[in-house]
């Protein structure tokens, strides 16, 4: 319950409808009242090799919205607000912009190739020039596309159209990695695994939480075996305990991400600690 309060900092304590509507309005106002380029801050959460051969440092980019009066909004609140107010495209470009800047800094200063995974919304991929804009930005900053990974969700797969599919293929063809986020929580992704150039499955935290029960253990072991059989690697999300890590190593999970190693932290710290 305390955890939930932390995650839904806004809109949790008052649960009656009227105040929910008020919260929503206040988030809408915050999101419309400030340019995303100014409001967005990025945090990075490291992804650590479990069974994977040690490769380049790898992080997920997690966005935060700084309001004019200094409060910090969490993505579960402001991303839906950005989506319903038609500004998600600008939010995503602000995130992309900062991620690219960070990759550039590391390359310049430390000569280090790190890989950053960026979350995108369905609307991003539905806008016809998303791949083109992203690739142009990378080219302009002289960043190799294979330092960038795009995370899509299973719910996005439900909105899969030929143009979304074409966008994903275009990104992959240009060298950008694709991963499927929150794997196992959505609906009918198996058919899409055959068709889409997805390199990585991220097993949702819900399954990792239950890993010590035989049922979830077997389920996760099965997901990993299935992923490996079709040539995909696996990241476990939300790894919090040494015991979970031990079990994930036992069933051959490639990568882990979670509070066991680090919460999402500012980019400078991320590199100093995990670069
Ligand atoms: P996600 O992509 O599944 O990201 C993982 C979320 O789980 C993050 O929450 C992260 O802080 C949290 N997490 C990581 N490790 C642990 C752990 O060990 N225990 C627990 N309890 N939680 C852990 P966050 O940052 O609040 O992000 C929530 C969701 O918001 C993300 O879920 C992602 O779907 C979305 N999101 C974040 N940034 C962006 C963005 O730039 N664009 C879009 N479209 N969505 C974003
Ligand atoms: Mg993600
Ligand atoms: Mg996830
Ligand atoms: Mg998740």
TrEMBL record:
Span of domain EAL: 20-275
Identification of the protein by name: Photoactive yellow protein/bacteriophytochrome/diguanylate cyclase/phosphodiesterase
Species of provenance: Thermochromatium tepidum (Chromatium tepidum)
Residues of the full protein shown: 834 to 1108 of 1108
